[in-house]
Amino acid sequence: MSNLDKSIGKILLELQKNDPDTFKKLMKQAQEENPELFEEGIDNENKEIEEYNYKVDEYNKKIDEE
After folding, report:
1. DSSP secondary structure string, 8-57?
2. What is the structure's pLDDT at 1?
3. Predicted pLDDT at 18
């Protein structure tokens, strides 16, 4: 993995944390333009990430309500 790849990965992780809606739109666009990059294994990982993000959102809502 090149330094550029690592930098892009870090940027995407930050975007996912800070602006999940924009991240989802960006990933959807990337998948439409380059479907070969998104294999079945990656879909499973994305589902796990989405489930984790949902749990984090629910936890944050509980904290905000208290």
Report:
1. HHHHHHHHHHH-HHHHHHHHHHHHHH-GGG--HHHHHHHHHHHHHHHHHH
2. 55
3. 92
